[in-house]
Amino acid sequence: MTTEDARDFLKDTIRRQIDFSQTDQSRGVPPPPIEKPGAPSAPRIDLPAPEAWSIPSVDIMTAIARRQSHRRFSGDALSLDELAFLLWATQGIRDYRSEHVAFRTVPSAGCRHAFETYLWLMRVSNVEPGCYRYLPQEHQLLLEFQQEEMEKDISQAVLGQRFAGEAAVTFVWTALPYRMEWRYGAASAKVIALDAGHVCQNLYIACEAIGAGTCAIAAYNQDACDELLRLDGTDEFVIYLAPVGKV
User: How far apart are CA 132 and CA 120, in angstroms?
Assistant: First the structure.
């Protein structure tokens, strides 16, 4: 890809070349599910509901003013309340228009929300370390798998950025492009990238309420990250990461 090609990606050029009458939505194809199903036998953890959280309040001006990237963490664990709050802030469901359209705490083009949230949990109170996935419809954690030397593998997958393995939890967002392509076809790539920024900014702001910090990671080994999460790398792949820890 040339610099010119990369700049064109940022422009509103692809949309004007697309015949939107040929998208799957326009052709009457049913929409994909808003949440990737989990194995029925996989262990699940119910997360505390918002009304049960013990989260200190912080005004929005203070949270925005304090926002910065953190690469060093104290080593303290997050509470389950705090993790539930961060997950709700980044991908929580507020309401439904239909079974295929959910209103979340972040904006998304056409309300398509093309992401899944995986979590490398290292230090969360009363939760075993492992790779989990957030189920926003159920407000649950689903255990994907556990493995040894998790911290080392994560750091290697993000090109030696050790703080990704030293965090209490590393958020990993994957893209499922078809959720967006169903409506927007080839124009989906740009808006998926924009949506990822919306999600991570909410994480930055929410961290300020719990005395935590994060640092977004966009430099990583794509194949290594996809393999680490056992993804196919085509219909689902890693798009963004953000380690979180107490500061």
Answer: 7
Q: Using alpha carbons, list the distances in angstroms from residue 99 to 6, 95, 102, 137, 182.
A: 36, 10, 7, 10, 16
Distance CA 49, CA 165 (A): 28
- In tens, the pLDDT along 25-54 reads 999 999 999 999 988 999 999 999 999 888
- Helix 188-207 vs helix 3-10: angle between axes, to the nearest 10 degrees? 70
Q: For every residue of 34-102, which 3-state class applies, written as one string?
A: CCCCCCCCCCEEECCCHHHCCCCCCCHHHHHHHCCECCCCCCCCECHHHHHHHHHHHHCEEEEEECCEE
Give which of 65, 66, 175, 68 is closest to 113, Cα–Cα.
175
Number of domains in the chain: 1
Q: Which uninterrupted H or E stretch holds 205?
A: helix 188-207
| 89 closest CA partner among 98, 100, 81, 101 | 81
Cα angle for residues 242, 119, 111 (degrees, 5° grid) = 75
Give yes or no for a contact between 23 and 186, defined as CB atoms under 8 angstroms apart: no
- Beta bridge partners, 175, equal 115, 237
Q: Please state, as a whole number, how many other Cβ atoms lie within 10 Å of the Cβ of residue 30.
A: 9
- Please state the pTM of the whole predicted model: 0.95
Is the distance from CB of 188 to CB of 224 less than 8 angstroms?
no
- Structural domain for 31, as ranges: 3-37+44-246
CATH assignment at residue 189: 3.40.109.10
Cα(94)–Cα(137) distance, integer angstroms: 10
- Residue keyed to tokens 């219909």: 235
Q: Higher-confidence residue: 79 or 18?
A: 79
